[in-house]
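Take a record:
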Amino acid sequence: MKEKTARCARNLLCLGAILLAGVNAHAQEKPTTNAKIALSNSFASNSWRQQMLQDWDKVTKQAVASKVVAAAPSFTTVQNQATEQSQQIQNMILQGYTAIVVDAASPTAVNGAIKQACSAGIVVVSFDGTVTEPCAYKISIDFKRMGQMQIDYFHKRNLKGNLLEVRGLAGFVVDNQIHSGVEEGLKQYPEFKVVGSVNGDYTQTVAQKAVAGLLPTLSDVVAVTTQGGDGAGTARAFIDAGRKLPVVFMGNRYDELELWKNEHDKNGYETESASIVPGAATFAFWYAQQVLAGAKLPKEINLPISVITQNDLVQSMASTPKGGVYDQTFTKQQVMDYVKSHAAN
């Protein structure tokens, strides 16, 4: 089953193939017509976050129009400011929201506000940037594995030598988790040596500038670990400097897939790509709605990482919007079926 699930995670469009049909819980659902579910988002400065907000808006507008819930607005703070997000959550408590979905700036710094929300009887569901407050539900992703799989891939390619690490947004929980996975992989494969590290902030332009500034100090680089939204910018920095393009692990963004395909068509360049789908926000929305409806759901559930291989590249690129991210949104039925499948396995 683990092998089957791993294959399926390569393309989340096949998720339905592993879902178990028929969840009887919503035959006894409590009505949520008057419920208000808010999204508290810690930043929106890259393509993943922007598409996540679009996914949320699309799915929740349909839910409001269908009278599943009364309202489901989203609110975004200034670039990953935990203090501001805590204040935002406290305002949501005062405004009478029934549930709050949180992509947190910090796993711990917003815990006080989260606990206040729970004490007020508000359902809290965290995803992507999850929190450690026990009262909150968590939609988790193994970001540590996302870091380690990059080193595994480089090893599988029989690469050896200098490695550049492009990290995410400094202080963000996902950055720390992916970095931890990279470190774990390096312990396993000592043939790699990290010769430089920069923060790309999950953004192509920031990554390109940061890598370009570091390149004059580096000798040959055989591979680059990334965190998503930074692969194309990293690759362009090498290309613009006239340097040999190393194996840059990509993050499922259209511009990354496009650059990868163009380089493959020219010279056979190969790499791999991984991320979570921005539609994870819609999974969290339906999770919160179902808790409000009386469903007994696990306090934590894991979503798979979406991996794109060389063989998947053309098909995956064709289904990815230009300027966007390889994606899937979720329906209520898919969420409940996934929960049942997850609990069964």
Q: What stands out?
A: DSSP finds twelve helices and twelve strands in the chain. The chain has a mean pLDDT of 92.
